[in-house]
Design a protein that fits this description.
Blueprint (H helix, E strand, L loop, with lengths): L3 E5 L4 H13 L5 E8 L5 H17 L7 E5 L3 H12 L3 E4 L14 H9 L3 E4 L14 E5 L4 H14 L2 E4 L7 E5 L13 H8 L5 E4 L3 E2 L8 E2 L1
Parallel strand pairs: 1-2, 1-4, 2-3, 4-5, 6-7, 6-8, 8-9
Antiparallel strand pairs: 5-9, 10-11
Helix pairs in contact: 3-4
């Protein structure tokens, strides 16, 4: 069964970066969808506008039939979390925070909240990724934090992208997979201070995996160790 990937999308440049990353992760045949969280229950106009911006995003990706979700919740991270749990999604993809320098990563508040105890993997795109949609991934770095599942995920992603796997810190990489800290509950994302620093200083896309969860980008379902 293919992975399910949800892209947090609001039609801004940074979320266009997220969409570019989602499309990259979906290279192995993963199911990709877009989601927008509305913060107020209200008129049809706001709902219609949300539906239209998601439709524009799907059309810009060349897949106008892409599944789209408008969620109403006071909190973006909570709305996305509930959607991902309902849809049995494996990954939520975010763009970097507004005004992040091109080529660098700065997780916004919703992404940060899911990096503290989220039940699914979190991917973050560097600012400006949308400008290089045909980015070549030759090396997938891994910072496993002692979790073999993160290394398995990196190997699976590398195989899907035709890349090799390298240890974090051994040299420049084109993608970074980060495992959750040993104290994290199984199936939950919790990053260490070292991992947080690695994410903040990364210049490539980052994927943070839940403890004990291996994502299969080449075949099969993610399995919990």
């Amino acid at each position: 069964m293919a992975l399910k990937i949800i892209v947090s999308y609001d039609d801004t440049d940074n979320d266009r970066d997220a969409l570019a990353l989602g499309r990259l992760l979906a290279v192995s045949g993963a199911e990709l969808s877009l989601a927008y969280v509305r913060h107020a229950v209200g008129g049809a106009l706001e709902q219609k506008e949300a539906e239209e911006l998601l439709a524009r995003g799907a059309a810009s990706a060349g897949t106008p039939e892409m599944p789209r979700h408008v969620v109403v919740n006071a909190g973006t991270s909570l709305g996305l979390r509930e959607l991902a749990e309902r849809e049995d999604a494996d990954v939520i993809v975010f763009g970097s925070e507004y005004r992040t320098s091109p080529g660098t990563i700065r997780p916004g508040r919703p992404a940060h909240k899911l990096l503290l105890d989220g039940p699914m993997a979190v991917a973050i795109a560097p600012a400006g990724l949308r400008s290089n949609p045909s980015v070549s991934i030759n090396t997938v770095g891994v910072l496993d934090s002692g979790d073999p599942s993160a290394r398995e995920t990196a190997s699976s992603l590398a195989a899907a992208l035709g890349a090799s796997v390298a240890e974090h810190g051994a040299g420049p990489v084109d993608f970074l997979v980060v495992g959750s800290r040993p104290e994290a509950h199984p199936g939950k994302v919790t990053i260490s201070a070292a991992s947080d620093y690695a994410i903040e200083t990364a210049t490539s896309p980052v994927l943070v995996t839940p403890r004990g969860v291996s994502l299969g980008f080449t075949a099969g379902q993610p399995q919990v160790a």
